[in-house]
Design a protein that fits this description.
The chain is an alpha+beta fold. It contains 14 helices and 10 strands. It folds into 2 domains: 5-196, L-fuculose-1-phosphate Aldolase; 208-330, L-fuculose-1-phosphate Aldolase.
């Protein structure tokens, strides 16, 4: 069933607020759409905050050629939504999320299998498996082709992992799409904990960022939104090589703000101590901390599964450049 256009726009706006509330996205990332006919859908705009969206901001797009009405630019991932509506007549509402456990599992490049055994109550919502699409940089033909391939190979899939990126949740309606996103996150959490095993069992209240600081090695981007916000590599400094005891003392006594400016980064690790962040305001700081924590979760998984590699350095550099020169300015 397709939605009436005004209802579709209202539900897309509502979905954006709900995704933020549930922590399934951060800032303006992710995207949401709803089918309004066999030939059209509405989708969130590019680079606009979800809390302030109005119906005038939601863009009407033609499925066949991706043309759209008005002067507001739709999400850069509109083609992936269009292809899902074209290939799957049962899909009427899509939420593309950056939810943390599903994003972390995506770095393995493997499908989530055995859902019925892991979470039998969620099996009717998610189905037998969740395919993982190959990596592609944001808004590129490669990413579109990878997701399309997963859709075609798994025509009954309710969600798709996007390697090193996030998840695409395909609902029959609004409620179904959210149920799928929530079920996917629960199953991903269970799978993540199983894969990490003893490595995370004794963490207690420790954050994953704190955990990773004990490894004493640079933090590479395993999730591409980390590459955009935090950079292509975060160095780890041995606490024995710096002055001071607390993180704030270390920051001040070693001029680490200047060090971060000089190296074009906004955070640095102190081995066995923790992470020091640098941001212009509280909003920037919160976003930075969220993506660093998620990337550290992924890096811990990579630590116990050494075959997992970070995002290609050239791709990470491109994502960072795009964010600095384009996306962050729109934000």
């Amino acid at each position: 069933m397709a939605y009436e256009i005004n209802e579709a726009k209202e539900l897309v706006i509502q979905a954006g607020k709900e995704l933020l509330k549930q922590g399934l996205i951060v800032r303006t990332w992710g995207n949401i759409s709803a089918r309004v006919s066999d030939t059209q859908f509405v989708i969130t705009p590019s680079g606009k905050g979800y809390l302030d969206l109005t119906k005038d901001d939601i863009v009407l797009v033609n499925i066949e050629d991706l043309s759209y009405e008005g002067d507001i630019k739709p999400s850069s991932e509109l083609a992936i939504h269009a292809d899902a509506y074209k290939l799957r007549a049962d899909v009427n509402f899509i939420v593309h999320t950056h939810q943390k456990y599903a994003s972390c599992l995506s770095i393995t490049g493997k499908n989530i299998e055995g859902i019925e055994a892991v979470a039998p109550d969620l099996y009717p919502i998610l189905g037998p498996n969740v395919p993982c699409a190959d990596y592609g940089m944001n808004a590129t033909p490669e990413l579109r082709a990878a997701v399309d391939m997963a859709l075609m190979l798994y025509p009954n899939s309710k969600s798709i992992l996007m390697k090193n990126h996030g998840a695409h949740c395909l609902g029959a309606d609004y409620d179904d799409a959210f149920a799928i996103a929530q079920a996917l996150e629960h199953v991903s959490m269970v799978m993540y904990r199983v894969l990490c095993g003893f490595e995370i069992q004794s963490m207690g209240d420790m954050t994953y960022a704190d955990k990773y600081c004990f490894y004493g090695k640079s933090l590479m981007p395993y999730i591409d939104d980390f590459a955009m916000i935090a950079g292509t590599e975060i160095p780890c400094i041995d606490y024995k090589a710096v002055k001071g005891n607390s993180l704030e003392e270390i920051r001040v006594e070693n001029n680490l703000d200047d060090y971060m400016d000089e190296h074009g980064i906004n955070c640095v690790m102190i081995r066995n101590k923790g992470m020091i962040y640098k941001a212009d305001n509280e909003d920037e700081l919160e976003a930075l901390q969220i993506v660093v924590e998620k990337n550290c979760m992924a890096a811990v998984l990579a630590h116990v599964m050494p075959d997992i590699k970070p995002v290609n350095p050239q791709c990470a550099s491109f994502e960072r450049k795009f964010y600095i020169e384009s996306y962050s300015k729109r934000k």
